[in-house]
Automatic annotation (TrEMBL):
Protein name: Culmination specific protein 37D
PROSITE patterns per record: T_SNARE
GO cellular component: plasma membrane
Biased composition, class Basic and acidic residues, residue ranges: 249-292
Length: 300
């Protein structure tokens, strides 16, 4: 009876020290909340994807509608004139000032980058030198030998002329070091039986096992939710790109494709402008030569 009471006391002591399901219950509750939030987020992302699909359809309809307005030339010219008026042409001084500001900023950015790069290289070089010095100090120190190297050297001296493999030698050495007497083995067996009885009588261990199983299932579901969320976000990103491109095209009133006649006309116009420019340059050159000849050689 005293042995049974002693066993019960030990069981209660173990339960007080290691038992209780407060931590696992708290962790399980947090995982349940995370799972609920992930599911709710995934559902909302699915709804947003449907809305983006509808918006993409509307933007495509707008694009096709606006592309049909290109045939109204007067309306097209009016919109171009109105759009041009919204964006005033910057003055030469402003452009010059902006270019100088960008150049100065670029030079400063290059200097800052070069300084940071030099500092990083210096730190890396000092770290490598410090490490090399430590390795050299360890190499030159005869008292720096660790336990593993001494043990391996001892094995090499003991088993130097033996035909067994290195793995077998290590197993034999481990067995020799961990050799125990029959009395010690019997006490270990009794201890294992007692621990097994503790496990069977401890109800809180069963509860923890159930909670851990549920945690594992929730973690697997969270992994699937994260993959699905990533896929939904990727789909939404593509939808937004399509909407942006469609809106840009839908706001352009010069979408009508030019005919071959219009393209030939524009090429002819460009060729005539280039011809006039060359003729003007040639005329200017001849005038300069004529003035130089009429002035004659310089007087001595």
């Amino acid at each position: 009876m005293s042995q049974q009471e002693d066993f019960e006391n030990q069981l209660l002591e173990m339960e007080r020290e290691y038992g209780g399901t407060e931590r696992t219950s708290r962790m399980l509750e947090q995982l349940r909340e995370a799972h609920g939030t992930g599911v709710d987020t995934l559902v909302k992302l699915g709804t947003q994807t449907e809305q983006l699909t509808n918006i993409a359809k509307l933007s495509q309809e707008q694009e096709s509608y606006v592309s049909g307005l290109g045939k109204y030339k007067k309306f097209n010219k009016y919109m171009k004139r109105w759009k041009k008026g919204e964006e005033p042409t910057p003055q030469p001084k402003e452009v010059h000032h902006e270019v100088n500001r960008i150049k100065v900023k670029h030079v400063q950015d290059v200097k800052i980058y070069n300084n940071k790069q030099a500092e990083r290289e210096r730190l890396e070089r000092e770290a490598v030198e410090k490490r090399q010095k430590e390795l050299e100090d360890q190499k030159n120190n005869p008292f720096q030998e660790d336990e593993e190297s001494r043990f391996s050297k001892g094995l090499s001296r003991i088993w130097k002329n033996d035909a067994l493999s290195s793995g077998t030698k290590q197993e034999l050495n481990y067995a020799a070091d961990n050799h125990s007497s029959p009395i010690t083995r019997q006490s270990e067996i009794d201890q294992d039986i007692q621990n097994n009885s503790f496990i069977k009588r401890s109800k809180w261990l069963e509860v923890q096992d159930q909670q851990l199983d549920e945690m594992s299932d929730i973690l697997n579901e969270l992994k699937n939710i994260s993959v699905a969320t990533h896929s939904e976000l990727k789909v939404q990103s593509l939808k937004l790109d399509d909407i942006s491109a469609s809106v840009d095209k839908g706001s352009d009133f010069s979408l009508k494709r030019k005919s071959q006649k219009q393209m030939d006309k524009e090429k002819k116009k460009q060729a005539e402008a280039e011809k006039k420019r060359l003729e003007k340059e040639e005329k200017t050159r001849k005038d300069i030569d004529k003035k130089l000849k009429s002035s004659g050689p310089p007087k001595k």
